[in-house]
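We treat protein structure as text, and this decision shapes the records that our systems exchange. The tokens are whole numbers drawn from a learned vocabulary of local backbone shapes. Below, we set out a record of this kind in full and without editing:
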Amino acid sequence: MDNQQKQPVQPNEQVFNDQNKADDALNSIKKLLELYNTFSIEAGSDQLHKEICNLKEETSNIQRSLFNTLYAKGWYPVTPEDQSKITQAYTKYSNMANQLK
């Protein structure tokens, strides 16, 4: 029997740096928002629904703040789309919405 205790594995800062931690937090918050959304839809009472919606809004504000931080640091680049593609997508989904009326 081995009497030596295993040493805990130390995180490697080169592998899980601040950017990785922030990205992980952002993804976790996104998943939490999905769960809050489902929970709010399935809430059994108006009071519970209202409380979950308040939590969802607070969490959404935290998510947006974290996103803004990542974007400002250049860790979450957003590339602008060509205007013609935006117009094309808008037309497509507007037509689909009109068909549902």
About this structure: The mean pLDDT is 89. DSSP finds three helices and no strands in the chain.
